[in-house]
Write a structure and sequence with these properties.
The complex is a heterodimer of chains A (99) and B (223).
Chain A: H1 3-19, H2 31-39, H3 66-92
Helix pairs in contact in A: 1-3
Chain B: H1 10-34, H2 39-54, E1 58-61, E2 64-66, H3 71-78, H4 80-97, H5 106-131, H6 136-165, H7 172-205, H8 210-222
Antiparallel strand pairs in B: 1-2
Helix pairs in contact in B: 1-4, 1-5, 2-4, 3-4, 3-5, 3-6, 3-7, 4-5, 5-6, 6-7
The chains are: A mainly alpha (99), B mainly alpha (223).
């Protein structure tokens, strides 16, 4: 598989997972949250300063359809993560010597 | 595993932000030496894939879910330096764009998942790889073991932070027992996802896998 094809397939799988499969994710509290509830320190949690922003909690604000809301948020996350990490790692890489 | 604002006091959060900044700087230097035209795109893809899979919470026990952390997976695929950077990008993105994990807690979360999870997982990977036969399936088994153990390692990181600067007063030993117990279960999911992903990349492009390449290159030097 060529480099280009490999990266394309990987990005496609990521987009399908974040944009499609994420709707089926389990919505129970995660390990830390559950422990915090059980032991009692969940009350010390404060809202993230961005808790009311457009994509908070992996949903697009104002989109009623849950599947669409989480899917679009996931796709935006894939694009944003790809842009930032792609840019960072391309800046860091060694260029192949010409000789 | 994403710590929200408020669990840990600000001085402790600041100490771990400084420690994480140090680890990121160290990783930037290491990644700059290691990444080339072939591995840099895979490092970017690894961050994207981990972001996507972290959205997929799976059930672990009654009323509890877990999701991939990805530190061990990233370390095996692209090496621990680039892995720390990839996980940091994911965590910063989640905190700022999706309000997942507190903003004052970003240093705490980077420390647990992008530093302890990555380097702890990578250490386990190297140990297990050493004792297994030198073949491709050993890479997946070593990566799965690394994934399994990296999750309780990251959970212990939280307990350490809790012991230093919790805003609540519940006993540290109670938090330790609950965190480790729950996160061993989540580690099983981590191991499965890590093994499947590493196996898929090994089957299609084993030459891109850092944990496999590195072994081959050391063998070449000996020859």
């Amino acid at each position: 598989m060529s480099n280009r094809k490999f990266i394309f397939v990987g990005l496609l799988i990521s987009a399908l997972l974040a944009g499609g499969a994420s709707f089926y994710a389990n919505s129970n509290p995660d390990g830390l949250e559950k422990v915090a509830q059980d032991i009692g320190f969940i009350e010390t949690a404060k809202d993230n300063a961005n808790a009311d922003t457009a994509l908070a909690d992996y949903g697009v604000k104002g989109v009623e359809n849950e599947r669409l809301s989480v899917g679009v948020a996931g796709l935006i996350g894939v694009v944003a993560t790809g842009a930032i990490s792609g840019g960072l790692f391309l800046l860091l890489r060694r260029k192949n010597p010409k000789n | 595993m994403h710590i929200p604002d408020g669990f840990i006091d600000l001085p402790t959060s600041a100490i771990f932000a400084a420690a994480s900044a140090g680890a990121i700087t160290y990783s930037l230097v290491g990644a700059r030496k290691q990444l080339d035209e072939k591995s840099a795109p895979l490092a970017g893809l690894t961050a994207v894939f981990i972001f996507a899979v972290q959205m997929l919470n799976f059930p672990v026990a009654a009323g509890t879910s877990g999701h991939l952390l990805g530190g061990a997976l990233a370390a095996v695929l692209v090496g621990p330096y680039a892995a720390t950077l990839a996980l940091t990008v994911v965590l910063v993105m989640q905190g700022f764009l999706f309000a997942d994990g507190g903003l004052s807690a970003i240093g705490l979360n980077v420390f647990n998942m992008a530093v302890l999870g990555v380097w702890g997982g990578y250490a386990v990977f190297l140990l297990v790889r050493k004792i297994l036969p030198k073949n491709k399936s050993s890479i997946s088994i070593a990566a799965a073991t690394a994934g399994l153990i990296s999750v309780p390692i990251a959970a212990v990181g939280f307990v350490f932070q809790y012991s230093l600067g919790a805003t609540a007063t519940f006993s540290v030993s109670a938090v330790l027992g609950a965190m480790v117990g729950t996160h061993i279960l989540i580690g099983i999911g981590e191991a499965i996802i890590t093994a499947l992903t590493v196996s898929a990349v090994m089957a299609s492009r084993s030459d891109l896998v850092f944990g496999w390449k590195y072994k081959n290159s050391t063998l070449e030097i000996r020859n």
